[in-house]
Design a protein that fits this description.
This protein has 19 helices and 21 strands. The chain has helices at residues 62-72, 75-78, 82-93, 96-109, 115-121, 129-134, 143-157, 211-224, 279-300, 320-333, 375-391, 396-410, 417-431, 439-453, 507-512, 522-536, 538-541, 553-557, 564-575; strands spanning 2-3, 8-9, 20-21, 25-31, 53-58, 160-161, 175-183, 186-192, 230-236, 255-260, 265-271, 303-307, 310-316, 351-354, 357-360, 368-373, 458-461, 465-476, 484-491, 497-504, 544-550.
Length: 576
Protein backbone atom coordinates (compact mmCIF):
# COMPACT_ATOMS: atom_id res chain seq x y z
CA UNK A 1 0.00 0.00 0.00
CA UNK A 2 1.37 3.43 -0.97
CA UNK A 3 -0.11 6.60 0.57
CA UNK A 4 0.67 9.77 -1.40
CA UNK A 5 1.33 12.88 0.69
CA UNK A 6 1.58 15.23 -2.28
CA UNK A 7 0.22 15.44 -5.81
CA UNK A 8 1.87 13.00 -8.24
CA UNK A 9 1.76 13.05 -12.07
CA UNK A 10 1.65 9.74 -13.91
CA UNK A 11 1.65 8.56 -17.52
CA UNK A 12 -1.60 7.57 -19.26
CA UNK A 13 -2.58 3.92 -19.64
CA UNK A 14 -5.61 2.93 -21.67
CA UNK A 15 -8.51 5.28 -20.78
CA UNK A 16 -7.63 7.44 -17.80
CA UNK A 17 -9.37 10.83 -17.96
CA UNK A 18 -7.71 12.32 -14.86
CA UNK A 19 -3.91 12.38 -15.13
CA UNK A 20 -3.26 13.43 -11.52
CA UNK A 21 -3.62 11.69 -8.18
CA UNK A 22 -4.99 13.87 -5.40
CA UNK A 23 -3.49 14.11 -1.93
CA UNK A 24 -4.20 11.06 0.34
CA UNK A 25 -5.07 8.73 -2.53
CA UNK A 26 -4.19 5.14 -1.61
CA UNK A 27 -2.93 2.36 -3.90
CA UNK A 28 -4.88 -0.77 -2.97
CA UNK A 29 -3.84 -3.19 -5.71
CA UNK A 30 -1.18 -3.25 -8.41
CA UNK A 31 -0.80 -6.24 -10.72
CA UNK A 32 2.13 -6.69 -13.15
CA UNK A 33 5.29 -4.74 -13.84
CA UNK A 34 5.90 -1.25 -15.07
CA UNK A 35 7.06 -1.21 -18.73
CA UNK A 36 10.76 -0.74 -19.24
CA UNK A 37 10.48 1.53 -22.31
CA UNK A 38 7.25 3.49 -22.68
CA UNK A 39 7.33 7.18 -23.47
CA UNK A 40 4.98 9.66 -21.82
CA UNK A 41 1.39 9.70 -23.20
CA UNK A 42 2.04 6.61 -25.35
CA UNK A 43 -1.11 4.51 -25.87
CA UNK A 44 -0.94 0.87 -24.75
CA UNK A 45 -3.46 -1.96 -24.94
CA UNK A 46 -4.80 -3.87 -21.96
CA UNK A 47 -3.48 -7.42 -22.14
CA UNK A 48 0.05 -6.51 -23.20
CA UNK A 49 2.89 -7.28 -20.79
CA UNK A 50 3.68 -3.61 -20.29
CA UNK A 51 0.25 -2.75 -18.87
CA UNK A 52 -0.15 -2.24 -15.13
CA UNK A 53 -3.65 -2.74 -13.71
CA UNK A 54 -4.14 -0.89 -10.44
CA UNK A 55 -6.92 -0.01 -8.03
CA UNK A 56 -7.01 3.23 -6.05
CA UNK A 57 -9.04 4.69 -3.23
CA UNK A 58 -9.36 8.10 -1.64
CA UNK A 59 -9.21 7.86 2.15
CA UNK A 60 -12.04 9.30 4.23
CA UNK A 61 -11.34 12.31 6.39
CA UNK A 62 -11.78 11.81 10.18
CA UNK A 63 -15.40 13.01 10.22
CA UNK A 64 -16.35 10.75 7.31
CA UNK A 65 -14.60 7.79 8.94
CA UNK A 66 -16.43 8.21 12.26
CA UNK A 67 -19.80 8.54 10.50
CA UNK A 68 -19.15 5.37 8.47
CA UNK A 69 -18.08 3.41 11.56
CA UNK A 70 -21.13 4.54 13.55
CA UNK A 71 -23.41 3.69 10.62
CA UNK A 72 -21.95 0.17 10.47
CA UNK A 73 -22.97 -0.27 14.10
CA UNK A 74 -21.97 -2.82 16.72
CA UNK A 75 -21.79 -6.48 15.54
CA UNK A 76 -24.46 -7.41 18.09
CA UNK A 77 -26.90 -5.24 16.14
CA UNK A 78 -26.50 -7.18 12.90
CA UNK A 79 -26.05 -10.77 14.10
CA UNK A 80 -29.79 -11.46 14.35
CA UNK A 81 -31.53 -12.55 11.10
CA UNK A 82 -34.31 -10.25 9.91
CA UNK A 83 -36.85 -13.09 10.05
CA UNK A 84 -36.29 -13.52 13.80
CA UNK A 85 -36.59 -9.75 14.29
CA UNK A 86 -39.91 -9.89 12.42
CA UNK A 87 -41.14 -12.73 14.65
CA UNK A 88 -40.14 -10.89 17.84
CA UNK A 89 -41.80 -7.71 16.59
CA UNK A 90 -44.99 -9.64 15.87
CA UNK A 91 -44.99 -11.10 19.38
CA UNK A 92 -44.20 -7.76 21.01
CA UNK A 93 -46.95 -5.86 19.17
CA UNK A 94 -49.74 -8.44 19.45
CA UNK A 95 -51.62 -9.68 22.48
CA UNK A 96 -51.58 -13.36 23.33
CA UNK A 97 -55.17 -13.75 22.09
CA UNK A 98 -54.49 -11.95 18.79
CA UNK A 99 -51.35 -14.00 18.19
CA UNK A 100 -53.22 -17.26 18.78
CA UNK A 101 -56.01 -16.10 16.44
CA UNK A 102 -53.54 -15.20 13.66
CA UNK A 103 -51.90 -18.61 13.91
CA UNK A 104 -55.24 -20.40 13.83
CA UNK A 105 -56.25 -18.45 10.70
CA UNK A 106 -52.98 -19.43 9.05
CA UNK A 107 -53.66 -23.15 9.40
CA UNK A 108 -57.27 -22.65 8.34
CA UNK A 109 -55.99 -21.17 5.07
CA UNK A 110 -53.14 -23.56 4.34
CA UNK A 111 -54.82 -26.93 4.55
CA UNK A 112 -52.50 -28.74 2.13
CA UNK A 113 -48.75 -29.29 2.02
CA UNK A 114 -48.15 -26.22 -0.15
CA UNK A 115 -44.52 -25.64 0.67
CA UNK A 116 -43.64 -23.64 -2.45
CA UNK A 117 -46.76 -21.50 -2.16
CA UNK A 118 -45.89 -20.73 1.46
CA UNK A 119 -42.42 -19.55 0.48
CA UNK A 120 -43.84 -17.37 -2.31
CA UNK A 121 -46.54 -15.95 -0.03
CA UNK A 122 -44.04 -14.86 2.61
CA UNK A 123 -41.18 -13.84 0.34
CA UNK A 124 -38.57 -16.57 0.91
CA UNK A 125 -35.63 -15.92 -1.43
CA UNK A 126 -34.56 -19.51 -2.19
CA UNK A 127 -37.57 -20.75 -4.17
CA UNK A 128 -35.58 -23.50 -5.90
CA UNK A 129 -35.02 -25.34 -2.65
CA UNK A 130 -37.96 -27.70 -3.18
CA UNK A 131 -37.05 -28.78 -6.70
CA UNK A 132 -33.28 -28.68 -6.34
CA UNK A 133 -33.01 -30.27 -2.92
CA UNK A 134 -35.94 -32.51 -2.11
CA UNK A 135 -35.57 -34.37 -5.38
CA UNK A 136 -31.91 -33.73 -6.13
CA UNK A 137 -29.68 -34.07 -3.08
CA UNK A 138 -26.42 -35.64 -4.23
CA UNK A 139 -24.40 -37.39 -1.56
CA UNK A 140 -21.38 -37.55 -3.02
CA UNK A 141 -17.06 -56.23 18.45
CA UNK A 142 -20.36 -54.33 19.78
CA UNK A 143 -20.34 -51.44 17.39
CA UNK A 144 -20.30 -53.80 14.38
CA UNK A 145 -23.40 -55.53 15.68
CA UNK A 146 -25.11 -52.18 16.32
CA UNK A 147 -24.24 -50.93 12.83
CA UNK A 148 -25.66 -54.08 11.28
CA UNK A 149 -28.80 -53.88 13.42
CA UNK A 150 -29.41 -50.25 12.47
CA UNK A 151 -28.80 -51.04 8.81
CA UNK A 152 -31.49 -53.73 8.99
CA UNK A 153 -33.85 -51.12 10.49
CA UNK A 154 -33.12 -48.77 7.59
CA UNK A 155 -33.96 -51.53 5.12
CA UNK A 156 -37.29 -52.12 6.88
CA UNK A 157 -38.12 -48.40 6.80
CA UNK A 158 -37.25 -48.07 3.11
CA UNK A 159 -34.23 -45.83 3.66
CA UNK A 160 -31.82 -48.42 2.23
CA UNK A 161 -31.96 -51.34 -0.18
CA UNK A 162 -29.82 -54.41 0.40
CA UNK A 163 -27.91 -56.57 0.70
CA UNK A 164 -26.72 -56.09 -2.88
CA UNK A 165 -24.53 -58.58 -4.70
CA UNK A 166 -21.23 -57.11 -5.88
CA UNK A 167 -21.77 -58.36 -9.40
CA UNK A 168 -24.85 -56.10 -9.61
CA UNK A 169 -22.76 -52.95 -9.19
CA UNK A 170 -22.10 -50.85 -12.28
CA UNK A 171 -18.68 -49.84 -13.51
CA UNK A 172 -19.28 -46.27 -12.32
CA UNK A 173 -20.68 -47.21 -8.90
CA UNK A 174 -18.93 -45.94 -5.78
CA UNK A 175 -19.03 -47.89 -2.52
CA UNK A 176 -18.26 -45.96 0.67
CA UNK A 177 -17.49 -47.20 4.15
CA UNK A 178 -20.18 -47.31 6.85
CA UNK A 179 -19.06 -47.51 10.46
CA UNK A 180 -20.33 -46.78 13.94
CA UNK A 181 -19.19 -43.81 16.01
CA UNK A 182 -19.74 -44.28 19.73
CA UNK A 183 -21.12 -41.13 21.35
CA UNK A 184 -21.72 -41.78 25.03
CA UNK A 185 -24.20 -44.64 25.39
CA UNK A 186 -25.31 -44.63 21.74
CA UNK A 187 -23.69 -45.52 18.41
CA UNK A 188 -24.24 -43.19 15.44
CA UNK A 189 -24.04 -44.48 11.86
CA UNK A 190 -21.44 -42.64 9.76
CA UNK A 191 -21.33 -43.01 5.99
CA UNK A 192 -17.82 -41.96 4.98
CA UNK A 193 -18.25 -40.54 1.48
CA UNK A 194 -14.89 -38.80 1.70
CA UNK A 195 -12.97 -42.00 0.99
CA UNK A 196 -14.55 -42.41 -2.46
CA UNK A 197 -14.05 -38.74 -3.34
CA UNK A 198 -17.75 -37.80 -3.37
CA UNK A 199 -17.35 -35.15 -0.68
CA UNK A 200 -14.50 -33.54 -2.60
CA UNK A 201 -17.02 -32.38 -5.22
CA UNK A 202 -18.80 -30.14 -2.70
CA UNK A 203 -17.29 -26.68 -2.19
CA UNK A 204 -20.10 -24.91 -0.29
CA UNK A 205 -19.99 -24.63 3.49
CA UNK A 206 -23.36 -23.43 4.82
CA UNK A 207 -23.52 -22.07 8.36
CA UNK A 208 -26.51 -22.84 10.58
CA UNK A 209 -27.66 -20.57 13.40
CA UNK A 210 -25.20 -20.97 16.24
CA UNK A 211 -25.35 -19.90 19.87
CA UNK A 212 -24.73 -16.26 18.94
CA UNK A 213 -28.04 -16.20 17.05
CA UNK A 214 -29.90 -17.75 20.00
CA UNK A 215 -28.26 -15.29 22.42
CA UNK A 216 -29.18 -12.37 20.15
CA UNK A 217 -32.73 -13.71 19.87
CA UNK A 218 -33.10 -13.85 23.66
CA UNK A 219 -31.56 -10.40 24.08
CA UNK A 220 -33.95 -8.85 21.56
CA UNK A 221 -36.92 -10.58 23.20
CA UNK A 222 -36.02 -9.05 26.57
CA UNK A 223 -35.62 -5.60 25.02
CA UNK A 224 -38.79 -5.68 22.91
CA UNK A 225 -40.96 -7.38 25.56
CA UNK A 226 -39.64 -6.01 28.88
CA UNK A 227 -40.90 -7.78 31.97
CA UNK A 228 -42.17 -10.81 30.05
CA UNK A 229 -41.69 -14.27 31.55
CA UNK A 230 -39.97 -16.33 28.84
CA UNK A 231 -40.00 -20.07 28.31
CA UNK A 232 -37.99 -22.14 25.84
CA UNK A 233 -37.46 -25.55 24.32
CA UNK A 234 -35.85 -27.22 21.30
CA UNK A 235 -37.70 -29.21 18.64
CA UNK A 236 -35.59 -32.07 17.35
CA UNK A 237 -36.40 -33.56 13.95
CA UNK A 238 -36.43 -37.34 14.09
CA UNK A 239 -33.87 -39.01 11.77
CA UNK A 240 -33.72 -35.69 9.94
CA UNK A 241 -31.50 -36.64 7.00
CA UNK A 242 -33.47 -39.81 6.39
CA UNK A 243 -36.57 -37.74 5.68
CA UNK A 244 -35.06 -36.50 2.39
CA UNK A 245 -34.47 -38.74 -0.67
CA UNK A 246 -31.37 -39.18 -2.79
CA UNK A 247 -31.68 -38.06 -6.42
CA UNK A 248 -32.02 -40.89 -8.93
CA UNK A 249 -28.85 -39.83 -10.76
CA UNK A 250 -26.89 -39.99 -7.50
CA UNK A 251 -27.97 -43.46 -6.46
CA UNK A 252 -24.90 -44.94 -8.17
CA UNK A 253 -22.78 -43.02 -5.63
CA UNK A 254 -24.86 -43.91 -2.57
CA UNK A 255 -23.61 -47.46 -1.94
CA UNK A 256 -22.19 -48.18 1.53
CA UNK A 257 -20.50 -51.29 2.91
CA UNK A 258 -20.50 -52.52 6.50
CA UNK A 259 -19.29 -55.60 8.34
CA UNK A 260 -21.87 -58.24 9.22
CA UNK A 261 -20.24 -59.93 12.22
CA UNK A 262 -22.80 -62.74 12.31
CA UNK A 263 -22.22 -63.76 8.69
CA UNK A 264 -18.52 -62.90 8.80
CA UNK A 265 -18.78 -60.96 5.54
CA UNK A 266 -19.13 -57.46 4.11
CA UNK A 267 -22.63 -56.41 3.05
CA UNK A 268 -23.41 -53.63 0.56
CA UNK A 269 -26.50 -51.42 0.71
CA UNK A 270 -27.79 -48.68 -1.53
CA UNK A 271 -28.97 -45.67 0.46
CA UNK A 272 -32.26 -44.21 -0.75
CA UNK A 273 -32.30 -41.41 1.86
CA UNK A 274 -29.58 -38.84 2.52
CA UNK A 275 -26.50 -40.43 4.10
CA UNK A 276 -25.10 -39.05 7.34
CA UNK A 277 -21.54 -38.27 6.34
CA UNK A 278 -22.05 -36.70 2.91
CA UNK A 279 -21.18 -33.01 2.55
CA UNK A 280 -23.97 -32.51 0.05
CA UNK A 281 -26.43 -33.94 2.57
CA UNK A 282 -25.55 -31.11 4.95
CA UNK A 283 -26.02 -28.48 2.26
CA UNK A 284 -29.30 -29.95 1.02
CA UNK A 285 -30.78 -30.49 4.45
CA UNK A 286 -29.89 -27.00 5.69
CA UNK A 287 -31.58 -25.41 2.67
CA UNK A 288 -34.76 -27.31 3.45
CA UNK A 289 -34.64 -26.67 7.20
CA UNK A 290 -33.96 -22.96 6.64
CA UNK A 291 -37.08 -22.61 4.52
CA UNK A 292 -39.17 -24.22 7.29
CA UNK A 293 -37.62 -21.83 9.82
CA UNK A 294 -38.39 -18.85 7.57
CA UNK A 295 -42.04 -19.82 7.17
CA UNK A 296 -42.39 -20.25 10.93
CA UNK A 297 -40.95 -16.78 11.59
CA UNK A 298 -42.79 -14.89 8.87
CA UNK A 299 -46.14 -16.69 8.80
CA UNK A 300 -46.64 -17.69 12.42
CA UNK A 301 -44.43 -15.27 14.31
CA UNK A 302 -42.49 -18.14 15.87
CA UNK A 303 -39.41 -16.91 17.70
CA UNK A 304 -37.00 -19.69 16.82
CA UNK A 305 -33.64 -20.48 15.24
CA UNK A 306 -32.45 -23.48 13.23
CA UNK A 307 -29.25 -25.42 13.93
CA UNK A 308 -29.28 -28.46 11.62
CA UNK A 309 -32.22 -30.50 12.98
CA UNK A 310 -32.72 -28.45 16.18
CA UNK A 311 -35.25 -25.60 16.23
CA UNK A 312 -34.62 -23.58 19.41
CA UNK A 313 -37.91 -21.86 20.26
CA UNK A 314 -38.77 -19.12 22.76
CA UNK A 315 -42.20 -17.78 23.78
CA UNK A 316 -43.84 -15.74 26.49
CA UNK A 317 -45.26 -17.87 29.26
CA UNK A 318 -48.78 -16.78 28.27
CA UNK A 319 -48.14 -17.86 24.65
CA UNK A 320 -46.65 -21.30 25.31
CA UNK A 321 -49.79 -23.30 24.59
CA UNK A 322 -50.59 -21.89 21.14
CA UNK A 323 -46.88 -21.60 20.25
CA UNK A 324 -46.55 -25.34 20.88
CA UNK A 325 -49.66 -26.00 18.77
CA UNK A 326 -48.46 -23.76 15.93
CA UNK A 327 -44.94 -25.24 15.75
CA UNK A 328 -46.06 -28.86 15.85
CA UNK A 329 -48.86 -28.20 13.34
CA UNK A 330 -46.36 -26.60 10.95
CA UNK A 331 -44.10 -29.66 11.10
CA UNK A 332 -47.05 -31.94 10.42
CA UNK A 333 -48.37 -29.69 7.67
CA UNK A 334 -45.05 -29.83 5.84
CA UNK A 335 -44.63 -33.55 6.46
CA UNK A 336 -41.77 -33.46 8.97
CA UNK A 337 -41.42 -35.98 11.80
CA UNK A 338 -40.08 -34.64 15.09
CA UNK A 339 -39.40 -36.24 18.46
CA UNK A 340 -42.74 -36.02 20.27
CA UNK A 341 -41.93 -38.85 22.68
CA UNK A 342 -38.86 -40.19 24.45
CA UNK A 343 -35.89 -38.38 25.97
CA UNK A 344 -35.85 -35.60 23.33
CA UNK A 345 -39.56 -34.84 23.70
CA UNK A 346 -39.29 -31.89 26.08
CA UNK A 347 -41.71 -29.10 26.91
CA UNK A 348 -41.38 -25.35 27.28
CA UNK A 349 -39.59 -24.62 30.53
CA UNK A 350 -37.71 -21.89 32.37
CA UNK A 351 -34.47 -23.92 32.08
CA UNK A 352 -33.93 -25.92 28.90
CA UNK A 353 -31.08 -27.55 27.00
CA UNK A 354 -30.23 -27.04 23.35
CA UNK A 355 -27.14 -27.08 21.14
CA UNK A 356 -25.16 -28.74 23.92
CA UNK A 357 -25.64 -25.95 26.48
CA UNK A 358 -28.14 -24.94 29.15
CA UNK A 359 -30.31 -21.80 28.98
CA UNK A 360 -31.64 -20.29 32.23
CA UNK A 361 -34.62 -17.96 31.64
CA UNK A 362 -35.58 -17.60 35.32
CA UNK A 363 -34.45 -13.94 35.37
CA UNK A 364 -35.58 -13.01 31.86
CA UNK A 365 -38.32 -10.74 33.23
CA UNK A 366 -35.55 -8.73 34.92
CA UNK A 367 -33.49 -8.60 31.74
CA UNK A 368 -30.97 -11.41 32.34
CA UNK A 369 -30.49 -14.85 30.74
CA UNK A 370 -27.76 -17.33 31.72
CA UNK A 371 -26.00 -19.62 29.22
CA UNK A 372 -23.63 -22.33 30.46
CA UNK A 373 -22.23 -25.77 29.81
CA UNK A 374 -24.62 -28.50 30.90
CA UNK A 375 -23.87 -30.23 34.20
CA UNK A 376 -23.53 -33.59 32.45
CA UNK A 377 -20.98 -32.18 29.99
CA UNK A 378 -18.94 -30.64 32.82
CA UNK A 379 -19.02 -33.85 34.87
CA UNK A 380 -18.08 -36.02 31.88
CA UNK A 381 -15.13 -33.82 30.85
CA UNK A 382 -13.88 -33.47 34.44
CA UNK A 383 -13.95 -37.26 34.78
CA UNK A 384 -12.00 -37.74 31.53
CA UNK A 385 -9.37 -35.21 32.58
CA UNK A 386 -9.12 -36.86 36.00
CA UNK A 387 -8.37 -40.22 34.39
CA UNK A 388 -5.59 -38.63 32.30
CA UNK A 389 -4.11 -36.96 35.38
CA UNK A 390 -4.07 -40.27 37.23
CA UNK A 391 -2.56 -42.30 34.37
CA UNK A 392 -0.24 -39.50 33.11
CA UNK A 393 -0.79 -40.85 29.59
CA UNK A 394 -2.47 -39.19 26.58
CA UNK A 395 -2.14 -40.55 23.04
CA UNK A 396 -2.26 -38.23 20.03
CA UNK A 397 -5.69 -39.45 18.94
CA UNK A 398 -7.07 -39.07 22.46
CA UNK A 399 -5.51 -35.59 22.73
CA UNK A 400 -7.25 -34.44 19.55
CA UNK A 401 -10.60 -35.76 20.80
CA UNK A 402 -10.03 -34.11 24.18
CA UNK A 403 -9.12 -30.82 22.51
CA UNK A 404 -12.41 -30.74 20.60
CA UNK A 405 -14.41 -31.26 23.79
CA UNK A 406 -12.34 -28.68 25.65
CA UNK A 407 -12.77 -26.12 22.87
CA UNK A 408 -16.55 -26.29 23.12
CA UNK A 409 -16.54 -25.92 26.91
CA UNK A 410 -13.90 -23.18 26.76
CA UNK A 411 -16.39 -20.88 25.01
CA UNK A 412 -18.27 -20.54 28.31
CA UNK A 413 -15.28 -20.07 30.62
CA UNK A 414 -14.20 -16.59 31.68
CA UNK A 415 -10.62 -15.43 31.13
CA UNK A 416 -7.57 -16.66 29.24
CA UNK A 417 -6.36 -19.33 31.66
CA UNK A 418 -8.44 -22.08 30.05
CA UNK A 419 -7.27 -21.07 26.56
CA UNK A 420 -3.63 -21.45 27.62
CA UNK A 421 -4.47 -24.93 28.94
CA UNK A 422 -6.00 -25.74 25.56
CA UNK A 423 -2.79 -24.69 23.82
CA UNK A 424 -0.85 -27.15 25.97
CA UNK A 425 -3.07 -30.02 24.77
CA UNK A 426 -2.58 -28.95 21.14
CA UNK A 427 1.19 -28.79 21.61
CA UNK A 428 1.17 -32.29 23.10
CA UNK A 429 -0.94 -33.68 20.23
CA UNK A 430 1.34 -32.37 17.49
CA UNK A 431 4.70 -32.05 19.22
CA UNK A 432 5.07 -34.86 21.73
CA UNK A 433 6.91 -38.01 20.58
CA UNK A 434 5.00 -40.28 22.97
CA UNK A 435 1.89 -40.47 25.15
CA UNK A 436 3.61 -39.47 28.40
CA UNK A 437 2.08 -36.40 30.06
CA UNK A 438 4.83 -33.99 31.12
CA UNK A 439 4.57 -31.63 34.09
CA UNK A 440 3.44 -28.60 32.04
CA UNK A 441 0.56 -30.51 30.45
CA UNK A 442 -0.39 -32.09 33.78
CA UNK A 443 -0.62 -28.67 35.44
CA UNK A 444 -2.57 -27.25 32.47
CA UNK A 445 -5.14 -30.05 32.58
CA UNK A 446 -5.42 -29.70 36.36
CA UNK A 447 -6.10 -25.96 36.00
CA UNK A 448 -8.61 -26.46 33.20
CA UNK A 449 -10.54 -28.93 35.33
CA UNK A 450 -10.63 -26.39 38.17
CA UNK A 451 -11.82 -23.64 35.80
CA UNK A 452 -14.50 -25.94 34.45
CA UNK A 453 -15.78 -26.95 37.87
CA UNK A 454 -15.88 -23.34 39.12
CA UNK A 455 -17.32 -21.77 35.97
CA UNK A 456 -20.35 -19.48 36.13
CA UNK A 457 -22.97 -19.00 33.40
CA UNK A 458 -22.44 -16.35 30.75
CA UNK A 459 -24.92 -13.54 31.33
CA UNK A 460 -26.89 -12.06 28.43
CA UNK A 461 -28.33 -8.80 29.76
CA UNK A 462 -30.78 -6.35 28.19
CA UNK A 463 -29.76 -3.67 30.68
CA UNK A 464 -26.81 -2.60 28.57
CA UNK A 465 -26.90 0.95 27.27
CA UNK A 466 -26.26 2.00 23.69
CA UNK A 467 -22.82 0.96 22.38
CA UNK A 468 -19.78 3.21 22.53
CA UNK A 469 -17.09 3.38 19.84
CA UNK A 470 -13.39 3.51 20.70
CA UNK A 471 -10.86 4.40 17.98
CA UNK A 472 -7.19 3.94 18.88
CA UNK A 473 -3.87 4.56 17.15
CA UNK A 474 -0.15 4.52 17.89
CA UNK A 475 3.12 5.46 16.22
CA UNK A 476 6.72 4.39 16.63
CA UNK A 477 9.46 6.49 15.02
CA UNK A 478 12.79 5.98 16.85
CA UNK A 479 14.91 9.10 16.98
CA UNK A 480 12.07 11.59 16.66
CA UNK A 481 10.85 13.79 19.51
CA UNK A 482 7.46 12.05 19.58
CA UNK A 483 8.89 8.57 19.14
CA UNK A 484 6.20 6.40 20.77
CA UNK A 485 2.80 8.03 20.65
CA UNK A 486 -0.53 6.64 21.89
CA UNK A 487 -3.98 8.07 21.29
CA UNK A 488 -7.69 7.25 21.36
CA UNK A 489 -11.08 8.89 20.89
CA UNK A 490 -14.48 7.90 22.29
CA UNK A 491 -17.82 8.41 20.48
CA UNK A 492 -21.39 7.49 21.34
CA UNK A 493 -23.88 5.69 19.08
CA UNK A 494 -25.02 8.97 17.50
CA UNK A 495 -21.46 9.89 16.51
CA UNK A 496 -21.06 12.58 19.17
CA UNK A 497 -17.58 13.08 20.62
CA UNK A 498 -17.14 12.16 24.31
CA UNK A 499 -13.44 12.10 25.18
CA UNK A 500 -9.89 11.61 23.90
CA UNK A 501 -6.31 11.18 25.11
CA UNK A 502 -2.90 11.47 23.48
CA UNK A 503 0.57 11.10 25.00
CA UNK A 504 4.13 9.98 24.27
CA UNK A 505 5.45 6.96 26.15
CA UNK A 506 8.65 7.66 28.06
CA UNK A 507 11.86 5.64 27.86
CA UNK A 508 11.05 3.51 30.91
CA UNK A 509 7.73 2.52 29.37
CA UNK A 510 9.37 1.66 26.05
CA UNK A 511 11.89 -0.54 27.83
CA UNK A 512 9.06 -2.47 29.48
CA UNK A 513 7.71 -3.19 25.99
CA UNK A 514 11.11 -4.57 24.93
CA UNK A 515 12.49 -1.72 22.82
CA UNK A 516 16.08 -2.75 23.54
CA UNK A 517 15.64 -6.28 22.18
CA UNK A 518 13.11 -5.78 19.36
CA UNK A 519 13.24 -4.20 15.94
CA UNK A 520 9.89 -2.50 16.51
CA UNK A 521 7.35 -2.26 19.31
CA UNK A 522 4.51 -0.83 17.22
CA UNK A 523 2.23 -3.82 17.86
CA UNK A 524 2.80 -3.52 21.60
CA UNK A 525 2.05 0.20 21.39
CA UNK A 526 -1.15 -0.43 19.43
CA UNK A 527 -2.27 -2.96 22.01
CA UNK A 528 -1.29 -0.64 24.88
CA UNK A 529 -3.47 2.08 23.34
CA UNK A 530 -6.45 -0.29 23.46
CA UNK A 531 -5.75 -1.33 27.06
CA UNK A 532 -5.26 2.29 28.13
CA UNK A 533 -8.55 3.31 26.53
CA UNK A 534 -10.45 0.51 28.25
CA UNK A 535 -8.93 1.41 31.63
CA UNK A 536 -9.29 5.17 31.20
CA UNK A 537 -12.94 4.98 30.11
CA UNK A 538 -14.16 1.94 32.03
CA UNK A 539 -16.75 4.09 33.83
CA UNK A 540 -18.19 5.11 30.44
CA UNK A 541 -18.12 1.53 29.13
CA UNK A 542 -19.79 -0.06 32.15
CA UNK A 543 -22.96 -1.95 31.14
CA UNK A 544 -22.45 -1.04 27.50
CA UNK A 545 -21.25 -2.84 24.41
CA UNK A 546 -17.89 -1.45 23.36
CA UNK A 547 -16.71 -1.39 19.75
CA UNK A 548 -12.93 -1.03 19.69
CA UNK A 549 -11.20 -0.27 16.39
CA UNK A 550 -7.37 -0.31 16.49
CA UNK A 551 -5.76 1.42 13.52
CA UNK A 552 -3.13 -1.22 12.72
CA UNK A 553 -4.52 -4.24 10.89
CA UNK A 554 -1.92 -6.57 12.41
CA UNK A 555 -3.13 -5.78 15.92
CA UNK A 556 -6.71 -6.60 14.91
CA UNK A 557 -5.89 -9.75 12.96
CA UNK A 558 -3.30 -11.23 15.28
CA UNK A 559 -3.44 -10.05 18.90
CA UNK A 560 -1.11 -12.96 19.64
CA UNK A 561 1.73 -10.87 18.22
CA UNK A 562 1.59 -8.95 21.50
CA UNK A 563 2.89 -11.20 24.26
CA UNK A 564 1.25 -11.13 27.67
CA UNK A 565 4.69 -11.06 29.27
CA UNK A 566 5.42 -7.64 27.77
CA UNK A 567 2.23 -5.69 28.34
CA UNK A 568 -1.13 -7.32 28.99
CA UNK A 569 -0.11 -9.00 32.24
CA UNK A 570 1.34 -5.82 33.74
CA UNK A 571 -1.44 -3.50 32.56
CA UNK A 572 -4.27 -5.77 33.65
CA UNK A 573 -2.72 -6.53 37.05
CA UNK A 574 -2.21 -2.86 37.86
CA UNK A 575 -5.52 -1.52 36.56
CA UNK A 576 -8.35 -4.02 37.11
Amino acid sequence: VKLFKQEWKFWVVHVADNHHLVVSVELLLCSRKFPSLVSEHQQVVVGQECVVVSAWSISRNPDEFVKAAIAAGHPCKIVLPEAIRHAIGTNASASSADLARQRALFFHKWTLLLWRELMIEFGYSDLEVRENVLGRCKPQGEEDATVHSKTLDERDKGWARGPIDRCMLGDDSLVSRRFGLKQGPKVRLIDDLTMGGVNELVTVHPKPHGLDIVAGMLLTCMKEMPGAELRGRAYDLRSAYRQLPVHLESLKHSFVAHWNAEAGAVEIDQLLALPFGASRSVFGFLRVATSVWWIGCMALGLIWSVFFDDFVTVARETDVRHTESAATALFRLLGWDYDDCGIKAVYFDVIFRALGVSFDLSSASRGDVGISNTESRIAELCQSIGEILDSRSLTRAAALRLRGRMQFCDSFLFGRASRLCLQAVTLHAYGSPDAAVDDDLWISLFRFRDCLAASRPHLVSSRHGEPLFVFTDACYEPGSEWCAGLGATLFDASGSFIAFFSFCLDKAGREVLGEATKKTIIFELEFLAVITALVQWKSHLKNRFGYCAPHTGGCRRDPGMVRASTIAKQCCRSSF
